[in-house]
Structures are given as C-alpha cells and as structure tokens.
Write a structure and sequence with these properties.
The complex is a heterodimer. By secondary structure, chain A is an alpha/beta fold. Helix content of chain A is 36%, strand content 29%. Classes of the chains: A alpha/beta, B alpha/beta.
C-alpha cells in the first residue's frame, strides 16, 4: 500500500557571511535562525524523512548558486527524493536545478506568470519532476469562482505571489486543474492564512484541491503536531504532509509523527 | 550522441566496474553516487565498446517509453549483446519498462512500431483503476520468487565488503516509485517482487536466465532499501566477473 509521506521543509537563506542557513518564520515573516541545511538534511534522513523540500528564500543570484551547491551536497549522500523551489522561471532554471541533483522542482510565480512553463518543463523533463506550488489565501468577497464553507462563512482561495504579499485574482482551484492539464506531476499547497500558526493545515483548502486534481497533493502550512498530519491525511486526502518548525525546533521527531499515524492505521514507511 | 565517457571513481578500491548507459534521458547523478556507495566504479557513457568490458550495465531513465526507445536505438544491438553474453543488465524505472516488448504509452502516439528490447516479453500499461496517477511515493515490496537482486549473493569472498555492509533481502521493505505505467510480463514467472497500488503489479522483473532484470522503483532514491538493492547488484556483477574470468 502506498504510504503517506512526511516531508520536512528546509528554507535556505544566506547568513551575514553569505553561507547557507536555515531560518524558520511565522506568517512568512519573523525569521529565526535554525541551522545548517546540509546537516539538517543528514539528520532528517536518519530520522526517517520520506523526502525533502528545499526552498531558496533569498530570491537572489547568490542565493541560487548557494542553493544548487547545497542540493548537490545533499544529493550526493542522501538517497531520498529532493524537491527544490524558489525563483524558478525558465526551463534553463529547471535543467540547472535537476542537474545539481534535485529530483523535482517546485514552481510558484514562474508558472503563474507564464503557464507554458509547466508544459515546457513536463515535455523536456517529464511530469514527475514538475511540482506546482500555490500560496493560497482565503478571500471572503465576491471575486472568486469556487466557494468553500469555512467556519460557517463562504470563501474562495486566491493564488498569491511573493509569499502572500501580492494577490493575482486567480482562483486556486482553477489554477490547480489547469496546472495538472498542462503536465504538473504534483501540487504543493501552502496556505498564507495558516503559515506559522501551528493550529493545523487548511483542511477546506487541501480537500478542495484534492477534489479537483488526480495528481498527488502535498499539504503545507500550519502543522503543529502529529494530530494535524492525521487530520490532513484522513479528512483532506492529502498524499504528503510538509512541516518545518515542529521538526526544526525538535518539538516532535519524524518517528513521533509516524508512530502516531501508524497507531491510527494511516500507512507510513518505517 | 557524444562518444564521451566519464569514470567517476578509481577502480582500484571498487568491487566491480559498472557502466551507466547515458542515452540522453534523466539525471544520472544519484544513480551514479548510489552505485559508488554500493562499491562500484562507475563509467557513464553511450560508447557501446565499454559495455563488454564492464562487470555490469545499468540502463537508467525517466520519461516516456517512445522517447526512451528512440534515444536508445543507436545502442539497441549492443544492449541485446550484453544480455546475450550473460552480463548483468539492470533497468531502472523507464529502463525496466524498456526491457519489455511494448507500451501503451508508445501506442497512444498513433505509431505501434515502438518496440522495446523484448528481453522480458510483455507490455507496459497505464494505471486506470481510479488511482492517483502518477503512482508517486513509498510503497512496499513483496518478494515473489528467488533472485539475487532481492536476496543478496553469497560471493564467498572475505574482504570484499566490510562487515555489515552486505546486501540482503528486501521483502516487506519500502521503495520509492514514480510512474504512470506498469509492466505486465507475458510470463507471470518474470515477476520477482510485486507491489500493491489498488492492484498488484511487478516492482521487479527478471528474464528466465536471471541476468536481465529491472526495478520499477528508483533504488537510488529508496534510502537503505535502495542501497541494499544496489549492493546486491554489485555482488551480482562480482559473481559474473568471477565466472567469466574462471
């Protein structure tokens, strides 16, 4: 039986000396230093992570170089899948990232601004390595296309750019279906409303996305403990749960999360 | 195709020499590192002259069946010769599917003439029982029959490996899959290990004589289980060389 994947997310930034560093934030802000990315990857691999997501949050040329170097170091010694995102806008960026040792690339803004990038990437490198990431935000107005009930209110989910700072007016569910039809092999669903809150994933959002696509969905944002992973797997039918701070700050180990899920009959890999 | 090759590790400390076939598809970095970790000296090449001298040949690959078969066409006869000589030939993911005869993936393009290597007769079909496609993630292996790739080889060679570093059985362990098509061999006996994704499909296949085999999953992405498979493969290569040199 296919297992649910537990994925630590590692946000890579540069420290004051230009070295790679991991920071963890709340609501995409208030970043706090957490460690060296390669060291963290090693530790998570030994702890039983099913996959890694590395995000370059520097959005700079220096950051990009550093990121590719980190990816190569990790890929050379850790034999589990690596997804890399941040600033990917062209097929050349995709190629460079895969060549550095990534198995998949996660694309957000680059695909929203030029949807053909999804087709081009899938054609050149295969759908299996094209992950489309959305930073969704709840909107309680009349501008959306698909409405979902959240806490008794009707809202739609908007795709945002720049970590939620910029709206696009694009409905997440429309975009998810379009990205899939263009060749995306996986969808990575972040929630601006839930990011850093630790009060659980955005279940209405994740369920709605799982309902409109057949490709695997990685749920992200809001995980505060094993019960939230359980909720997103059983109530929203997500295929993978991503978390950062609960693992980075040693609140829970990956084994804690997997044991909790296993005891409740959610299939996980040991 | 370029006639260049790259040997990535000195052969002195390696247990076996392995060629990773570079036919222009996929990222060869992880499979190369994984094989090196398992004790192989790896040469990445599309130069078929290197095939015969190697202790084993790996046919990697991600992407579409048609593209894979077409890209590998110039070395098709050389790959068949590897199988003929009894050399270990290991297909991974698309490389495994290419060991079969046909694929729905090729036929849907309107040209049924795309033929795989036909070393493990059968066809590749698409998941269509309502499963999420691609089948992506970690799934369990059930060993169906004996084969050195899934149970390890007794190479009887003290000193070949450090204690504890040997291969071994992978029954009941998890491997990482990413694929939309799965193999249906003509002969059920070709299935060495199977996996359940709403239906049972072959995770590992092998030909009758046992020297041609493949995994649908990516051993180079399957953590310790994958490294076990790669160590078993290196041991198969060592056994082949001993037999050939004896």
């Amino acid at each position: 039986m296919l297992t649910k994947r537990i994925i630590p997310c590692i946000d890579v930034d540069l420290d004051d000396d230009g070295n790679p560093a991991v920071y963890t934030g709340v609501h995409f802000e208030d970043l706090k230093y957490t460690g060296d990315p390669v060291e963290m990857a090693r530790a998570y691999n030994e702890a039983g992570a099913d996959e890694f997501v590395f995000l370059d949050i520097t959005a700079s040329a220096d950051g990009r170089e550093t990121m590719l170097d980190v990816v190569s170091q990790v890929a050379d010694e850790v034999f589990i899948p690596l997804t890399v995102g941040g600033g990917i806008r062209t097929t050349e960026d995709i190629k460079e990232t895969l060549r550095a040792g990534a198995d998949k690339v996660s694309i957000t803004t680059g695909a929203l601004e030029r949807p053909e990038l999804v087709n081009e990437g899938a054609r050149a490198f295969g759908s299996q390595c094209i992950v489309i990431s959305v930073d969704a935000r709840r909107r309680f107005d009349e501008d959306g296309e698909h409405y979902t009930q959240v806490d008794g209110e009707s809202c739609w989910f908007e795709c945002t750019k720049k970590g939620g700072r910029e709206g696009t007016g694009i409905d997440v569910l429309e975009w998810a279906a379009e990205a899939e039809s263009r060749g995306a092999g996986e969808l990575f669903v972040n929630s601006i409303d839930k990011d850093g809150t630790k009060d659980g994933y955005d279940i209405p959002l994740t369920s709605a996305v799982c309902d409109v696509v057949d490709t695997p969905v990685i749920a992200s944002s809001g995980c505060g403990g094993p019960e939230h992973m359980h909720e997103v797997f059983t109530e929203a039918n997500a295929d993978a749960g991503l978390a950062a701070s609960i693992f980075h700050f040693d609140e829970y180990s990956i084994a804690d999360v997997k044991s909790y899920l296993d005891e409740r009959d959610v299939p996980v890999r040991f | 195709m370029s006639q260049q090759s790259l040997t990535t590790r000195s052969s002195e400390d390696a247990l076996a020499s392995v060629v990773v076939v570079d036919y222009g598809l996929g990222n060869l970095r992880s499979v190369t590192r994984g094989l090196e970790r398992a004790g192989a000296a790896v040469t990445i090449t599309d130069d078929s002259a290197a095939f015969a001298e190697a202790d084993g040949v790996v046919l990697p690959g991600v992407g579409a069946f048609r593209e894979g078969v077409e890209n590998a066409d110039p070395i098709r006869e050389d790959l068949l010769a590897v199988a003929d000589r009894g050399q270990p030939l290991f297909g991974i993911c698309l490389g495994m599917q290419m060991l079969l005869t046909t694929s729905e993936e090729g036929a849907t393009d309107g040209d049924a003439a795309v033929t795989g290597l036909d070393l493990v007769p059968g066809t590749n079909v698409r998941f269509d029982h309502g499963q999420k496609v691609p089948h992506m993630g970690w799934n369990e292996l059930s060993v169906e029959r004996a084969h050195p790739l899934v149970e390890g080889v007794d190479t009887e060679t003290e000193g070949d490996r450090a204690a504890g570093a040997t291969g071994g059985s992978v029954d009941g362990r998890y491997a990482y899959f990413v694929h939309s098509y799965y193999a249906v061999p003509d002969d059920d006996g070709a299935t060495v290990a199977s996996t359940d994704y709403d239906l049972e499909f072959p995770a590992i296949v092998a030909n009758e004589s046992g020297n041609v085999f493949g995994t649908q999953f990516h051993p180079e992405k399957s953590g310790e289980t994958g490294l076990t498979i790669l160590r078993n493969f290196v041991d198969i290569c060592v056994a082949y060389r001993r037999g050939r040199d004896a």
